[in-house]
């Protein structure tokens, strides 16, 4: 019985950590309305779209050298923890970054 209790406790702790990470990621994704509840799947899909938008924005401002630098950095560093939500303003959201836009791609 003790092993089962330990396993259940460990799984609750793991699930809590996953949910906390999704909550932090959700804070970083601009949507309208901002408080709209999103599923984990929608959070991941919108995060990918937002990252692609930011990459395109940076490439348009600084050229294609950014993509090469980013690829080298990401391929040479281990996974990093999500940063805490800061008070810095986010760049403007790309067009159609909404829940309905994510559902169209499903």
TrEMBL record:
Gene Ontology biological-process annotations: brain development; ventral spinal cord interneuron differentiation
Keyword field: DNA-binding, Transcription, Transcription regulation
Keyword match Nucleus: no
Keyword Ubl conjugation recorded: no
Boundaries of every BHLH domain copy: 2-54
Coiled-coil region: none
Record PANTHER family: PROTEIN LYL-1-LIKE ISOFORM X1-RELATED, T-CELL ACUTE LYMPHOCYTIC LEUKEMIA/STEM CELL LEUKEMIA-RELATED
Protein name (database record): Stem cell protein
């Amino acid at each position: 019985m003790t092993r089962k209790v330990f396993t259940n406790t460990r799984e609750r702790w793991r699930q809590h950590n996953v949910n906390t990470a999704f909550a932090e990621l959700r804070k970083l994704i601009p949507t309208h309305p901002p408080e709209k509840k999103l599923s984990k799947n929608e959070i991941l899909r919108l995060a990918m779209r937002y990252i692609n938008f930011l990459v395109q924005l940076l490439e348009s401002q600084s050229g294609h050298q950014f993509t090469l630098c980013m690829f080298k950095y990401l391929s040479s560093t281990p996974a990093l923890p999500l940063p805490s939500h800061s008070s810095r303003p986010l760049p403007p959201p790309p067009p159609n970054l909404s829940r309905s836009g994510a559902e169209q791609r499903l």
